[in-house]
Design goal:
mainly alpha, about 80% helix
């Protein structure tokens, strides 16, 4: 898959996470569902990190500065 396709997939996964969080707030879904959506978003972020060739050490440095 290309980078654009991965970005599109990330947008979809983030949207699903937003929906799940909103449903959780209204007690219309479980915490397990939200956790699953978080996992999906993390997987997509990891895939994009690899495609963009962002080294884990560089990422950790940036994360600590944030």
């Amino acid at each position: 898959m290309g980078l654009q396709s991965q970005f599109d997939q990330l947008h979809e996964e983030v949207g699903e996470l937003i929906v799940a969080i909103n449903h959780l707030k209204r007690r219309r879904c479980s915490l397990k569902k939200v956790a699953g959506e978080i996992a999906d978003v993390r997987l997509m972020l990891n895939a994009i990190q690899v495609l963009l060739k962002i080294d884990d050490k560089d990422y950790e440095k940036i994360e600590k500065r944030q």
